[in-house]
Amino acid sequence: xxxSTDGLIMTLELLGLSLLFGLALAVPLAVARTAKHRVxxxxxxxxGYLFRGTPLLVQLFIIYYGLAQFDWVRDSWAWDYLxxxxxxxxxxxxxxxxxxxxxxIAGQIRNTHWGEIEAARSVGMSQWLMxxxxxxxxxxxxxxxxxxxxVIMMLQSTAIAGLVTLADLTGVARxxxxxxYMPFEPFFTAALIYLALTFALVWLMKRxxxxxxxxxxxxxx
Length: 221
Description:
One of its GO terms (molecular function) is transmembrane transporter activity. By secondary structure, this protein is mainly alpha-helical.
């Protein structure tokens, strides 16, 4: 018998792994998105356009159900993983959040203050050294407020994982409902847990903003 604790653990796993892999993928993609190489930048733009322009539920269904119709997929090494609902959900969530996070970080890279760039060049930093030590750390800090919204959106988006048989919070609530025919209690409990998780994430992200964006706060005279 599945419990809300099992669903909570599954939801946190889906959220944590998707955000981790998505951020790791988004950083190099954001650098490529802001590169002067038009083909490279265009390819990243197309990736972001596809995943930001289509519903996450459709992306999940394509990966979990759609890829199985291709013989070359079923005959490849990847099929051992793609037939697993958990892996497909992580993959869909990762690609989706990576698309949004790429644009968030890329926007902050473009908005890097010219004074920081000039200071780095004045001490002889190369383009890559300046990117690693100045531009990226500054961009990632300034991206925190927008990224906070993406984290919350991803938490809510994990609710669709139950549609591919995973027992996340919503999936567990749906199974309890199918067994007890009581819709209010399980879904209301799931809503309260999502609300508590959202509150905790907002609190953590606000603390991170206060710590890493303190230099942007107005100075007291």
